[in-house]
Design brief:
six-stranded antiparallel beta barrel, 2 domains, Pnp Oxidase, Chain A, Thrombin, subunit H
Length: about 220
């Protein structure tokens, strides 16, 4: 059984040393379907019969494997079918596909919200909710974390709760401030925060990764 999960990001190393980046579209009958996330300018054509080395990551687990390109299909996006999957090995990999994305983001360091991370925001009146949430601007996002700017001061290694929306879907996630930078703009401090997601369920991370790849495709248009 192939342990690689649908919607995982994947990198295929081709025989000429180039890297093909894509998404696991499906896994059927010991075959892996890989769809491209590149536009026509960056798209790399892989020959049927070519041997590739791959690394697939769903944000939680990563697997290295060897395969052969057995077929090329024209689906919604250019898709390759990988067969003769061999030498599957779990590997350590902390990198996630990251996309630049500028959008309003809300967060809170309030202890009550941190303790009740799955709190239904609809139960709060607008005024009460705004008393807990701070505003910022998201700069980029991946399955591993998010970067945003705000004039609200947070400390490194501090936990926060983040409320964000990606492609029409709302997420409530907990994060840890792993680094902070300060810029002085017109005598006012503006902070940039790098946040690592923590206590994130595999299902939620997969959803975020899926949204990240949608945004990557849109950025290529």
């Amino acid at each position: 059984m192939i342990p690689i999960i649908v919607n995982s990001s994947v990198e295929l190393k081709l025989q000429n040393g180039e890297i093909f980046r894509g998404l696991i579209y499906d896994v059927i009958d010991d075959k892996i379907y890989v769809t491209s996330v590149s536009d026509s300018k960056d798209f790399k054509l892989i020959n049927v019969g070519e041997k590739v080395n791959g690394i697939a990551s769903n944000g939680v687990n990563s697997y290295a494997f060897d395969a052969i390109i057995s077929e090329r299909k024209k689906l919604e996006y250019p898709t390759y079918i990988l067969s003769n999957i061999a030498n599957i090995e779990k590997v350590q990999r902390r990198q996630f596909a990251r996309v630049n994305y500028t959008k309003e983001i809300h967060f809170s360091d309030h202890s009550m919200l941190l303790e009740k991370g799955n709190l239904d925001l609809n139960r709060f009146s607008h005024d009460r909710l705004m008393g807990y949430l701070k505003e910022g601007i998201m700069l980029d996002i991946s399955g591993g974390g998010v970067k945003f700017k705000s004039d609200y001061r947070l400390s490194e290694r501090e936990n926060i709760l983040i409320y964000l929306e990606l492609e029409g879907e709302k997420f409530v996630v907990k994060g840890n401030i792993v680094h902070r930078e300060v810029d002085i703009v017109k005598e006012k401090a503006l902070y940039s925060y790098g946040v690592e997601f923590i206590d994130l369920s595999e299902n939620t991370r997969e959803k975020i990764i899926r949204k990240v790849f949608v945004l990557m495709r849109k950025n290529k248009i």
